TrEMBL record:
Domain of life: Bacteria
Spans traversing the lipid bilayer: 71-92, 233-255
Topology with respect to the bilayer: Multi-pass membrane protein
SUPFAM superfamilies named in the record: MetI-like (SSF161098)
Protein's UniProt keywords contain Membrane: yes
Protein name, as recorded: ABC transporter permease subunit
Keywords: Cell membrane, Membrane, Transmembrane, Transmembrane helix, Transport
Family: Belongs to the binding-protein-dependent transport system permease family.
Location within or outside the cell: Cell membrane
Length: 266
């Protein structure tokens, strides 16, 4: 059963990696220009235009292949920042359990009460859209990561391998980095996946509201906003970017769930 589960995780990891690579490097696969007008507005599928055209007559397939790079890069940066801060804070909070650690945990709980989209909208007034996504993901995701890692670290402090390391005279930072953190690898990986999904959702929300890359740059979220009114003429112009976002988020979420189940069972 363990071998089957491990094989399933590896398959999901490979599939998710392929999806991320396609989102990041899809522009290299397209033979068309994603910003050039190729035909009439919302023309249907035709030779050379397998998904038809958008409202400005541009190749939908070329724009879909090129429209995931910036969104994915921003989401990865935001998720990585939130996970890094949350893991560092969670290790310290779960290990020390002193007055300062309790204050940090209480602050994390207060941050969780803030409406995430409202925070991001306030941030986007002061900083560019990508920075606002990072701010929103950090404020919304770091507290969750901190709580999860802190609870796991507190439990690890009572395990035999940690007690053995301490009895050898190893200092707390070394124990946390060499013993505790590797034991949480699956948990941290699963949590990073959840932060990535959160960042993608936040990026999409801001881009749909018009805070994403300026036209005519291709972007999956902006394509949804731009092509809804032509849904009856060429449904693929709106369905294709929606499907791309669904596949990206779904692949990451499935891998995160698999890693979480594996971490919980270990």
């Amino acid at each position: 059963m363990t071998v089957v589960r491990r094989s399933g995780v590896l398959i999901l990891a490979a599939a998710t990696g392929a999806v991320l690579l396609a989102a990041l490097g899809g522009e290299a696969l397209t033979g068309g220009d994603p910003v050039r007008t190729a035909t009439t507005s919302w023309a249907g599928p035709a030779p050379g235009l397998p998904l038809g055209a958008d409202g400005l007559g541009r190749d939908v397939l070329a724009r879909v292949l090129a429209g995931g790079r910036d969104l994915t890069l921003i989401s990865l940066a935001a998720a990585g920042t939130a996970t890094l801060l949350g893991v560092a804070g969670g290790l310290w909070t779960g290990w020390s359990r002193g007055r300062s650690a309790r204050a940090v945990a209480a602050s994390a709980d207060l941050l969780l009460a803030l409406p995430l989209l409202l925070v991001a909208l306030l941030a986007v007034v002061a900083v560019p859209g990508p920075a606002a996504v990072i701010v929103g993901t950090v404020l919304g995701g770091t507290p969750l990561t901190l709580r999860v890692v802190a609870d796991a670290t507190a439990g690890a402090g009572r395990t035999g391998y940690v007690e053995a390391a301490l009895s050898r005279g190893e200092r707390a930072p070394a124990v946390l980095l060499r013993e505790v953190l590797p034991a949480h690898a699956a948990l941290v990986g699963a949590d990073f996946g959840q932060r990535l999904v959160l960042a993608v959702q936040l990026t999409v929300a801001l881009n749909v509201l018009g805070f994403g890359p300026p036209p005519p740059a291709p972007d999956w979220a902006a394509m949804l906003r731009e092509n809804l009114q032509g849904l009856g003429l060429n449904p693929a112009a709106a369905i294709a970017p929606a499907l791309a976002l669904t596949v990206l988020s779904g692949a990451v979420a499935a891998l995160s769930h698999a890693l979480s189940s594996r971490g919980g069972g270990s």
